[in-house]
């Protein structure tokens, strides 16, 4: 029972850390795109820090910031690869799902295919991206 409570607490910590991450990245993103991406990449290992090291949200954020410090380009490269793969999957899903509408109602006709394409992309790349973040966290932790 105690282990189950501690896991639930860790999930709550992850939610709190995500909120802090998105607010920090959003504020930096408002200032400029590059600082927003930098902050997002530095905090991208927070979930792994919280779950693997069983830390609280602030400790997880600090750990992610510290570990990602010298590895921002690696994190950027991994995210760029997922962006490229996700874009290909999205376009294929869009084309298979009915193509790209044209004409006066093209914008309205794009809503459903875009929704399907986004969902398919997320389902196919999301779990792999989480696994990559865990792998990067573990690798950076060993440096």
UniProtKB/TrEMBL annotation:
It comes from the Archaea. Residues 13-110 form the DUF7847 domain. The chain crosses the membrane at residues 7-34, 72-96. InterPro entries: DUF7847. It holds the Pfam family DUF7847. Keywords: Membrane, Transmembrane, Transmembrane helix. This is DUF7847 domain-containing protein. It comes from Halococcus hamelinensis 100A6.
